[in-house]
Amino acid sequence: MAARQEKKLSEERKHQNMQNGTKASQGQWGRAWEVDWFSLASILFLLTFAPLIVYYFIMSCAQYQCSLTAPLLDLLTGNKHLSDIWNRTPTLTYRAAGIYSLWVTFQVVLYMSFPDFCHKFLPGYVGGVQEGAVTPAGVVNKYQINGLQAWIITHVLWFANASFLHLFSPTIIFDNWIPLLWCANILGYAVSTFAMIKGYFFPTNAKDCKFTGNFFYDYMMGIEFNPRIGKWFDFKLFFNGRPGIVAWTLINLSFAAKQQELHGEVTNSMILVNVLQGIYVLDFFWNEAWYLKTIDICHDHFGWYLGWGDCVWLPYLYTLQGLYLVYHPVQLCTAHALGVLVLGLLGYYIFRATNHQKDLFRRTNGNCRIWGRRPEYIECSYTSVDGTRYHSKLMTSGFWGWARHFNYTGDLMGSLAYCLACGFEHLLPYFYITYMAILLIHRCLRDEHRCSSKYGKDWKRYTAAVPYRLLPGVF
Ligand code: NDP
């Protein structure tokens, strides 16, 4: 079997690297070949606690008005037992299972059956069939980029329903929030398990599989690089973007509808959260082709981290601000609201402009203008598994001359704005900025480790030219 042969080859490669005493040899970018104890401990921690963390946050809103400390205090003082909390938690319902199945099926149909039309009439939008980056095995995959179209169709139908069709209530998502959580978990675990089995027995590209020999690591970080069913159903592109990110804006709209129903108004904080996160989501789909060049698609393998994360973690934890505002309808004073808006828009501008600069630079191979000038860069090279030598460039001007990950800095500013929109009464809405800070700092380190393995001494020249990661002069 191709996968078994590749598994053997993986072992041999691992052995060779150890003998050579270098990890900077061919094809060594992408996720690790070996698992150190720290990675293993982190993975076991996440596999065990991430589902509990999601449950804890959602339960504390449903049962404790979004207080994160009250459930713990109740448990510690013996006021309540775990079973009391669990017994008050809504179970899986046929209705939720029906809604969720319809939702996922609808997104699969939009993804598979409707080739992109938007690029034919939207100036500047890149959609339709696009190529991804070169994989470590030297493969270039093709993708059908039609996320913007799926997002527009879904939202037009949502608004048509809310305005005149009235087939279901716009509060449907909020009203089934916990039963839907069980459905999302079932899909998340099913797809991650399927991806693992597929990696062993029928991988899409055996040469792009990685086996560490550690079951938990392989399950979490994935074996296959780009698992597909047929020519076009790409797991990473589908699960990363839909159903989770398309749902993000619908979930927020459903929370706004619930706030209106319960409190008779939609607060300015809820509008800010809907608008700022809406811009972020729309930006994601407008730039879906660019997304093919980000770490998720270019480097991460598809396992539980992406599969479960996209189905459960993202739609449930990225939307905590909206959920919180249903329970606590915060009306901000004008200065506070304006401050949140400016911070959110500035963060978005930095995030987008930085990403755009790199994309333009890479697409034109440096033949472009950044801030009115020819970009400065460092020439670098790397080798793929089959021994082919490739050349690349690392930009050292524009925002990329300020810091090595200034796009993350903009993202963090936007994330902070969502949280600040919720006021200062509770900790729960601040989970997002805490999580994003950990995620993006960890991502910085992970990416730099990989780039260092990939580019070797060229990476050292780059870090000498651009010494800071996120904040010039600080970190
Ligand atoms: P980047 O877009 O920064 O991509 C990093 C890659 O870019 C590197 O691996 C390297 O790839 C290349 N690169 C690094 N430095 C340079 C340079 N100076 N010039 C040219 N190319 C360079 O990171 P991500 O893919 O992680 O993030 C993309 C965006 O998505 C970010 O803005 C981030 O904030 C956002 N994001 C949001 C998340 C969320 O949950 N909201 C989660 C993750 C990301 P190569 O091997 O090609 O050289």
Automatic annotation (TrEMBL):
| Biochemical pathway | Steroid biosynthesis; cholesterol biosynthesis
User: What GO annotations for molecular function exist for this entry?
Assistant: 7-dehydrocholesterol reductase activity
Q: Its GO biological process terms?
A: brassinosteroid biosynthetic process; cholesterol biosynthetic process
Provide the reaction this enzyme catalyses. 7-dehydrodesmosterol + NADPH + H(+) = desmosterol + NADP(+); cholesterol + NADP(+) = 7-dehydrocholesterol + NADPH + H(+)
- UniProt keyword annotation of Lipid metabolism present: yes
Which PROSITE patterns does the UniProt record give?
A: STEROL_REDUCT_1 (PS01017), STEROL_REDUCT_2 (PS01018)
Region described as Disordered: spans on this chain: 1-25
This protein's UniProt keywords: Cholesterol biosynthesis, Cholesterol metabolism, Endoplasmic reticulum, Lipid biosynthesis, Lipid metabolism, Membrane, NADP, Oxidoreductase, Steroid biosynthesis, Steroid metabolism, Sterol biosynthesis, Sterol metabolism, Transmembrane, Transmembrane helix
* Record's keyword annotation contains NAD: no
Membrane-crossing ranges are: 37-58, 92-114, 148-168, 180-201, 306-326, 333-351, 415-441
Q: Provide ranges: composition bias, Basic and acidic residues.
A: 1-15
A GO CC term attached to the entry: endoplasmic reticulum membrane
Q: Where in the cell is it found?
A: Endoplasmic reticulum membrane
Give the enzyme's main class according to its UniProt record, as a single word: oxidoreductase
In the Enzyme Commission scheme, what number(s) does this protein have? 1.3.1.21
Membrane topology field: Multi-pass membrane protein
InterPro entries xrefs: ERG24_DHCR-like, Sterol_reductase_CS
Give the family this protein belongs to, as stated in its UniProt record: Belongs to the ERG4/ERG24 family.
Q: According to its UniProt entry, what is the function of this protein?
A: Catalyzes the last step of the cholesterol synthesis pathway, which transforms cholesta-5,7-dien-3beta-ol (7-dehydrocholesterol,7-DHC) into cholesterol by reducing the C7-C8 double bond of its sterol core. Can also metabolize cholesta-5,7,24-trien-3beta-ol (7-dehydrodemosterol, 7-DHD) to desmosterol, which is then metabolized by the Delta(24)-sterol reductase (DHCR24) to cholesterol.
Q: What is the protein named?
A: 7-dehydrocholesterol reductase
Q: Origin organism of this chain?
A: Zosterops lateralis melanops
